Amino acid sequence: MTPATYAVLNLEALQHNLACVRQAAPNAKVMAVIKANAYGHGLLRVAAKLPNVDAFAVARVDEAVRLRQAGFTQRIAVLEGFTCNEELQALLRYDIEAVIHCPEQLAILNTYSAEQTLSVWLKHDSGMNRLGFKTATVLAAYQQLMACKAVKKPLQLMTHLANADNRQDATTDKQIHLFNQTIAQFSGERSIANSAGILGWTEALSDWVRPGIMLYGVSPFAEQTAAQLGLKPVMSLHSQLIAVKDITIGESIGYSGRWVCEKTTRYGVVAIGYGDGYPRYAKTGTPVLVNGQRVPLIGRVSMDMITVDLGSQPHAKPGDPVILWGNGLAVEEIAAWSDTIPYTLLCGITQRVQIVEQAEVKG
Q: 4: which DSSP letter?
């Protein structure tokens, strides 16, 4: 039985989007970013559909260990690295790579005396001002890692772009130039480009690229849609009408009664709310697909339900299908109506939303 509210994953679209990565960066190795439960799509499910990527990237050690314990043999890099000796031991035990970004990690490595060695990515902070060694200290960090017996050689080198989603911003050019200049004499493969870097900055295409949001069929650019970039959405969010009612002039709908009826109309109640991950702050007018046609959201989003204006659909009835995003309604558009970004919507799908693969939906 298909539940009232569920997310459908088109995993063929995932393969298509990976092909777009390879087309944009034909000479680069691909490190698929599957952190945060693969941006809400399911860590193990997505990893299983990407057997030909060169490596995976996750944010935290437990994500990487979960992949290894599930039998994945690809290279795995932990973008936040390790924070303690226990995490370092887990990385060594499972042959997982770590991003080295702070002196505290160097200190832990320098006291480690096991026979195994750790593959590392030295991170240069070229302007993101989050993780990484500043230009003035990255050489010393590189030298310490090269001298450390616990570290495999050669090292790998990376930075992260802060503003690559804005192609008019000069910051990205400055970051790329600073990174390349700073590590010019260092040995080891390089990685700069995230999704926006891959699609918008050819100068960022180095030995490795790190696609994240584009793998899931979402544009990293506000001014350009995923469809315009040739990407296909992987996730679509579905529900159904559970009630259809009439409302007359002067009546209000929902908490606080902010939406007041200005002309007699029909409206529908949809079985989805912020308890499922639909954005709490979606505005009145946010598009929703009912029977494949756009209708506007009216009233506040509640925990389990939303309401939509069905004045344009006189024959709509309980049980009719509803799409909240995907399949003709881009998640980027819903994010814009909600004053947020697509990442938060994809990652925010809650546990009570059943996730099914496209082939499972029929019947």
A: S
Residue 307 has pLDDT above 60, yes or no: yes
CATH 3.20.20.10 fits 11-218, yes or no: yes
Q: How many CB atoms lie under 10 A from the CB of residue 139?
A: 15
Residue identified by tokens 């031991």 is 89
- List residues with catalytic annotation: 35, 255
Tokens of 285: 């007018």
Q: Cβ distance 208 to 191 under 8 Å? A: yes
Q: pTM of the predicted model, to two decimals?
A: 0.95
Residue-wise pLDDT for 110-168, tens only, equals 998 778 899 999 999 999 999 999 999 999 999 999 999 999 999 999 999 999 999 99
Helix axes 135-147, 103-110, angle to 10 degrees: 10
pLDDT at 239 over 80: yes
Other beta carbons within 10 Å of 181: 11
Strand-pairing partners, residue 62, are none
Rounded CA separation 315/174 (Å): 57
Contacts of 215 (CB under 8 A, 6+ apart): 14, 17, 18, 21, 32, 33, 50, 195, 234
Q: How far apart, in whole angstroms, are the C-alpha atoms of residue 28 and residue 212?
A: 15
CATH number of 235-357: 2.40.37.10
Supply 59's token pair. 């944010």
Contact 126, 179 (CB under 8 A): yes
Cα 338 to Cα 177, 282, 342: the distances in Å are 36, 4, 10
In this model, does residue 5 exceed pLDDT 80?
A: yes
Alpha-carbon separation of residue 18 from 52, 199, 219, 326 (angstroms): 10, 12, 14, 18
> Would you list the domain boundaries of the chain?
11-218, 235-357
- Which residues, 6+ apart, have CB-to-CB distance to 33 below 8 Å? 56, 57, 58, 194, 210, 211, 212, 215
CA pair distance 198, 211, nearest whole angstrom: 7
Q: Which residue has the tokens 């697909």?
A: 289
What's the burial of 13, exposed, middle or buried (CB within 10 Å: 0-12/13-18/19+)?
A: buried
Q: Are 295 and 208 in contact (CB under 8 A)?
A: no
109's tokens: 């490595």
